[in-house]
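Submission checklist for the structure archive. All mandatory fields must be present; incomplete records are returned to the submitter.

[x] Identifier: DUF2627 domain-containing protein
[x] Organism: Halobacillus andaensis
[x] Residue count: 77
[x] Sequence attached
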Amino acid sequence: MRLIALLLIATPGIIAVIGIKLIRDALFNVFHPVFFHIVIQGVFGLLCVIGGIAFIGGFILHRDRKRNLTKGRFKKK
């Protein structure tokens, strides 16, 4: 069970790291031929970073709610 949780956390983390690399490459004009334009590459990298961080945050919040570790602010009504 812990291995599955580790894979669930590691996969979006790797996607977020790839997104950071794509943003950095877009800022320094390193073009990857998969994308049609450098702006599309930067926007896709930004979406990868936001999506990866949001998934990790949601996973941690769900786990903490299940174990009753959250304060009153994050409790379900």
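[x] Structure attached
Curator remark: Residues 2-74 form one domain. The mean pLDDT is 91.
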